[in-house]
Amino acid sequence: MPPLSLYIHIPWCVRKCPYCDFNSHQVQGALPVDVYVAALLGDLACDAPHARGRPIDSVFFGGGTPSLFAADAIARIIDGVDALLPLARDAHHVLVRGLFG
To answer: Helix 71-84 vs helix 33-47: angle between axes, to the nearest 10 degrees?
Structure first.
């Protein structure tokens, strides 16, 4: 079976651009990082059986401005994904280099 890619949507921005059609929202107060990470991983846990063991080749963070999430929150997401679905052998290296330089 072919590998899969995973898209992680982070829907907050410092301000909403007038041309943007994505589901994104201007930050108002503190971001609900812990609640959102838990919801993302809970959602993935429900859908993980549909992957049928296929490896995740790439993980793309998009949406609003994913860099509004601290590195530890992104790491919790990646660790949670890895616990639920097999990441391709080289995926960790690509993720860390892509996110943290």
So the answer is: 20
Q: Classify residue 88 as exposed, middle or buried by CB count within 10 Å of its CB (0-12, 13-18, 19+).
A: middle
Backbone torsions φ then ψ of 59, nearest 5 degrees: -125, 125
Contact 91, 56 (CB under 8 A): yes
pLDDT tens, 8-49? 999 999 998 888 888 988 999 999 999 999 999 999 999 999
Percent of the chain whose predicted confidence (pLDDT) is above 70: 90
Taking the CA of residue 41 as centre, how many other CA atoms within 13 Å lie in the half-sphere pointing to its CB? 18
For 24, other C-beta atoms within 10 Å of its C-beta total: 17
The answer to whether the CB of 27 falls within 8 A of the CB of 79 is: no
